[in-house]
């Protein structure tokens, strides 16, 4: 038995011991004392993650894997993105989004006009990201073996136009999802180039994944806020933050309750990343009426109605069932 496997066996055999005093590091490794941790709630034992990595995700709600996606793949995703921006291809169901400040300027038919592609599941080249074996083997650690790709994005954070609109407010991704349980949902977010504080890297609040879903709405920001960029209400602004600076191909996996956002892009270039939210196919849909998610439900239904003229015939759950794609195992529920 390997040393790592032996350590994990000891941890699991002592689940009822007192929690460990865990000191988390930002990239997934951590150190801990000789006492034993509480029950490992947030990951599955697939023999991929080390005990240290599992404990880090347990404590922090995210784990960063270096150099996971090859440069050749990322370059292909970039080319597919540029073809869409030049309108050389039409992708069914794709939502092409523009920064609110850029939208008020002269339209340019290239990537400078596009801040995000959302729902690219019908584009074979971009959706290849969601099927990459090296990504799915990590996803399985958090969702289990039956995996649905539920939400796809390619983010093209533009240079800030002086209005600070390139910021993304702090939020929890679960706000957008009418399916549960939250612990069987994970995001894979891959840097398509060097990402740092200058061009607006992800900012996370470690440990906030252990809390509950908070109320979200549009922040009252000067300069405006991009459509559907809701922000979390009532979080502690003094909570310690980690800026996830990443190299091309690095991938962070994080829990849907983890509070995170990103700062302004203060460079002259565009900051690109590609991501997919995955869920266990064993997850189930919930009714969000009467909850803090009712505002996003109405907004999504309004957009779907304008796009497809379906009126009240479409539900919030329908919009997600339409987008979801099985990528591994069996489609058991979602």
From TrEMBL:
One of its GO terms (molecular function) is metal ion binding. Its cofactor is ATP; L-ascorbate; Fe cation. GO terms for biological process: fatty acid alpha-oxidation. Pathway: Lipid metabolism; fatty acid metabolism. InterPro entries: PhyH, Phytyl_CoA_dOase-like. It is an enzyme of class 1 (oxidoreductase). Gene3D superfamilies: q2cbj1_9rhob like domain. Belongs to the PhyH family. Pfam families: PhyH (PF05721). Keywords: Dioxygenase, Iron, Metal-binding, Oxidoreductase, Vitamin C. Its EC number is 1.14.11.18. This is Phytanoyl-CoA dioxygenase, peroxisomal. One of its GO terms (cellular component) is peroxisome. PANTHER family: PHYTANOYL-COA ALPHA-HYDROXYLASE, PHYTANOYL-COA DIOXYGENASE, PEROXISOMAL. It catalyses: butanoyl-CoA + 2-oxoglutarate + O2 = 2-hydroxybutanoyl-CoA + succinate + CO2; octadecanoyl-CoA + 2-oxoglutarate + O2 = 2-hydroxyoctadecanoyl-CoA + succinate + CO2; tetradecanoyl-CoA + 2-oxoglutarate + O2 = 2-hydroxytetradecanoyl-CoA + succinate + CO2; phytanoyl-CoA + 2-oxoglutarate + O2 = 2-hydroxyphytanoyl-CoA + succinate + CO2.
């Amino acid at each position: 038995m390997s040393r790592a496997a032996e350590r994990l066996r000891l941890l699991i055999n002592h689940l009822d011991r007192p929690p460990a005093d865990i000191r988390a590091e930002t990239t997934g490794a951590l150190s801990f004392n000789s006492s034993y941790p509480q029950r490992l709630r947030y990951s599955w034992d697939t023999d991929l993650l080390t005990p240290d990595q599992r404990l880090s995700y347990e404590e922090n709600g995210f784990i960063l894997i270096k150099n996971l996606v090859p440069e050749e793949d990322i370059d292909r995703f970039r080319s597919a993105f540029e073809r869409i921006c030049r309108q050389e291809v039409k992708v069914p169901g794709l939502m092409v989004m523009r920064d609110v400040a850029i939208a008020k300027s002269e339209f340019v038919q290239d990537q400078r006009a596009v801040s995000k592609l959302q729902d690219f599941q019908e584009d074979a080249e971009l959706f290849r990201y969601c099927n990459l074996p090296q990504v799915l083997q990590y996803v399985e650690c958090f969702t289990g073996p039956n995996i649905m790709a539920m939400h796809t994005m390619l983010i093209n954070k533009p240079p800030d136009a002086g209005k600070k609109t390139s910021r993304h407010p702090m939020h929890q991704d679960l706000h957008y999802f009418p399916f549960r349980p939250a612990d069987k949902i994970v995001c894979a977010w891959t840097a398509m180039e060097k990402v740092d504080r200058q061009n607006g890297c992800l900012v996370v609040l470690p440990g906030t994944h252990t809390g509950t879903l908070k109320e979200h709405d549009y922040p009252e920001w000067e300069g405006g806020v991009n459509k559907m960029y809701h922000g979390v209400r009532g979080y502690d602004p003094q909570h310690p933050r980690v800026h996830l600076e990443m190299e091309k191909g690095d991938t962070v996996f994080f829990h849907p309750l983890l509070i995170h956002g990103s700062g302004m892009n203060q460079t002259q270039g565009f900051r690109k990343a590609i991501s997919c939210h995955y869920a266990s196919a064993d997850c189930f849909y919930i009714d969000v009426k009467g909850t803090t998610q009712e505002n996003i439900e109405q907004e999504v239904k309004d957009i779907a109605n304008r796009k497809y003229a379906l009126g009240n015939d479409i539900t919030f759950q329908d919009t997600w069932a339409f987008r979801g794609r099985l990528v591994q195992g069996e489609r058991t529920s979602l």
